[in-house]
Write a structure and sequence with these properties.
59% of the residues lie in helices and 8% in strands. 48% of the residues are buried. With 671 residues, it is an alpha+beta fold. Helix 4 runs parallel beside helix 12 and helix 13 crosses helix 14. It is built from 23 helices and ten strands.
Length: 671
């Protein structure tokens, strides 16, 4: 016998009218946004790893001298404040030919210079005395292909050297405390390695942290999509249940409808992600924009996200029907307020105690442990939120003095889960704001901006180099004060290393000119600037700042969208209640105020709690990283919360015309 589920589901969907179509379109739109954001987050995480993998050839595994075919010295210099990675390569005489490095067609000969496309543009824009003269004179530059670059905006040069060139000598690879990850010398026979560039190695980790913090608001949005039209669906299915439909048929009908709407929306989001890939690739992160192919997640991930969003929406819709299956008459009469149990509070307290003990023992947690604790906290607060909303509704209801407040309190206590879904996005976004506002790293250190230094072998060479430096700077037209640094000057730019330090006047262009003019004094090493010395710290803080900003903006946008979506759905679901209230003489203004207060009351209490928790988690991260707390983040936190609250209220008030429409004919609406 043919199952009536599919034909009946299709019939009910078609006959649901304009209100039903609006709910389905809203649900599909939410699924599309959720699918799109999930794919973008996955693409950023996978793409950051792929970008880092394309830099491993610059630090290949060293081999014994008898097996080596070439010498490689990788270092960095700065122009316009941006790092330029320079790979010096020299073929050893009498050895096998070394294969070409990634992005090059052949191993470079002495005097040949290959540059990335972005560096070629910069060399053309800047006078030779500011950058080009740091490299050997070349009639033309070769081009480094995408296989050797992390980003189309990355500045990279590959320079062919003779084995006797000072740029590949042992002294060129000697390291000081600030050289780690920037300057290294190795005997090589190929370009296979596992160590990524300093400028890309932290990209994936910071992106993953942002993904973990952002994924919950996206899940909230997708879950809200599954519950759109829940009241209408419950009433309709309760009537079918009373007419003789089995619980299995009721669940099957709901699952089919939700899965169809979710699949259409999720697929639309996936198609939008695919179409917008070129635009997404232009968004800068770290070393610059992206190669489009490295942001493509592949068909397996695409299908997995579409299936996951569809399953989430279906599960969200099905879980709403427990009462329909067990007590259809109570649902039909709307006589069973959904109370919450105190076990939610017990579990929440237990999770907080576990997190406190885990982070309080040593404060030195690995990234995976911190991410696991964040996920655990999210789950606990998601369980705890409805219980708080329920209690708030009861407390406010007993003390309410205005009709709008009383209506809001009754809605909170009658449907705490529905009220929680409206504010949950911003409540969890408050955790993100608290975390990133405080966790923005502030690493203390001495600043020596405006200085250019040259390292020398000893103090005697430093004194001789100081005289030459004055001559070279004067010839280049740079105004600077030259001083000698020695091993006792620990607070200098060189930090106790012998050398020459020039205090340059005239801004960024003068700094670049001075660095180029002093290059011949370095015996194969480029002059050192503040950007070089603080590169390790600055790279981490820059990545965290970028991810912080992006996560904050997206989380608040998703939270506002989720709130607006849920508010519109609540208006459609409660049109019978609103109609009855209008028939009883309640002004539309009072109904609208009740909707606003229904959001504001739990938002103030719960968002404050999650924000405090986020600040606590950030302090633990700072403690593990050995950095200080960003005190200026308090101002940023207040601004974020204020903007987020205003965005949510704007999204909710956006459904005011819909409220006016569904209550415009109270006699019909109340039927």
């Amino acid at each position: 016998m043919r199952s009536p589920v599919l034909p009946l589901t299709w019939h009910l969907a078609r006959s649901s009218g304009r209100r039903g179509l609006q709910s389905q379109l809203l649900a599909a739109g939410a699924a599309a946004v959720g699918s799109f954001l999930l794919l973008v987050m996955i693409a950023a995480a996978l793409g950051a790893g792929a970008r880092a993998d394309h830099t491993t050839w610059r630090a290949p595994d060293a081999v014994p001298a008898q097996r080596a075919t070439a010498v490689q010295v990788t270092t960095a210099t700065y122009a316009r404040g941006e790092p330029v990675t320079v790979v010096n390569l020299a073929q050893l005489a009498g050895r096998e030919r070394t294969p070409a490095p990634p992005g090059l067609t052949a191993f470079p000969k002495p005097g040949e210079v290959y540059v990335s496309p972005a560096l070629a543009v910069l060399l053309h824009e800047l006078p030779a005395g500011q950058l080009a003269d740091r490299f050997p004179k070349a009639g033309s530059y070769g081009t480094i292909g995408a296989a050797g670059l992390a980003s189309p905006d990355e500045l990279v040069a590959v320079v062919g050297r003779a084995p006797s060139d000072p740029a590949v000598a042992v002294s060129a690879g000697e390291q000081n405390y600030y050289d780690e990850g920037l300057t290294e010398r190795a005997l090589i026979s190929g370009f296979s390695g596992a160590r990524t560039s300093l400028f890309t190695r932290t990209d994936q980790g910071t992106v993953l942290l942002g993904v973990v913090l952002l994924v919950m608001p996206v899940v909230v949005l997708a879950s809200a999509a599954g519950r759109l039209g829940a009241a209408r669906r419950e009433q309709r299915l309760a009537a079918l249940r009373l007419a003789g439909a089995t619980p299995r048929q009721i669940l099957a009908m709901t699952a089919v409808e939700a899965a169809a709407v979710g699949a259409v929306g999720a697929l639309a989001g996936a198609l939008a992600y695919t179409a917008l890939l070129p635009a997404l690739a232009e968004l800068p992160y770290g070393v610059g924009a992206w190669y489009t192919g490295r942001l493509w997640v592949g068909l397996p991930w695409l299908a997995a996200v579409v299936a996951a969003v569809t399953a989430l929406i279906t599960l969200s819709a099905v879980t709403m029907l427990r009462q329909v299956a067990t007590s259809p008459l109570g649902v039909a009469q709307q006589a069973d307020p959904r109370r919450t149990r105190a076990i939610r509070l017990v579990l929440f307290v237990a999770v907080l105690a576990y997190i406190w003990m885990t982070t309080g023992d040593s404060g030195q947690l690995k990234t995976r442990q911190l991410i696991a604790l964040l996920v655990l906290f999210y789950g606990a607060f998601w369980l705890f939120g409805p219980w708080v909303v329920d209690r708030l509704g009861r407390i406010v209801g007993r003390r309410a003095k205005r009709p709008a407040t009383l209506l809001a309190a009754r809605r909170l206590s009658d449907d705490p889960r529905g009220a929680w879904r409206t504010v949950s996005g911003l409540v969890l976004a408050g955790f993100v704001a608290g975390f990133f506002s405080v966790s923005t790293l502030s690493i203390d250190g001495t600043s020596h901006h405006g200085q250019v230094a040259v390292i020398t072998a000893n103090a005697a060479d430093a004194r001789h180099a100081a005289t030459e430096a004055r001559t070279l700077l004067d010839r280049a037209g740079v105004t600077a004060t030259v001083a000698v640094s020695n091993e006792d000057a620990f607070d200098s730019l060189l930090g106790g290393v012998d050398g020459v330090i020039a205090q340059v006047s005239g801004g960024r262009a003068a700094m670049d000119t001075a660095a180029t003019a002093l290059t011949p004094l370095g015996a194969g090493r480029y002059p050192v600037t503040q950007e070089y010395v603080s590169a390790q710290d600055d790279t981490v803080t820059a990545r965290v700042a970028t991810v912080s900003t992006a996560t904050l903006v997206l989380s608040f946008l998703v939270a506002a969208a989720s709130a607006g979506l849920t508010a519109a759905a609540n208006v459609l679901d409660r049109r019978r209640v609103y109609g009855l209230l209008r028939l009883s003489g309640t002004p539309l203004k009072v109904l609208d105020r009740a909707r606003i207060r229904e959001t504001v009351i739990p938002l103030v209490v719960l968002a404050g709690g999650t924000t405090a928790m986020g600040a606590f988690g950030a302090m633990q991260v700072n403690k593990a990283a050995g950095t200080t707390v960003n005190t200026s983040g308090a101002v940023q936190l207040v601004i974020c919360l204020a903007v987020g609250a205003l965005a949510m209220l704007a999204a909710i008030t956006g459904s005011r015309p819909l409220l006016r429409e569904v209550t415009s004919g109270p006699a019909q609406t109340a039927d």
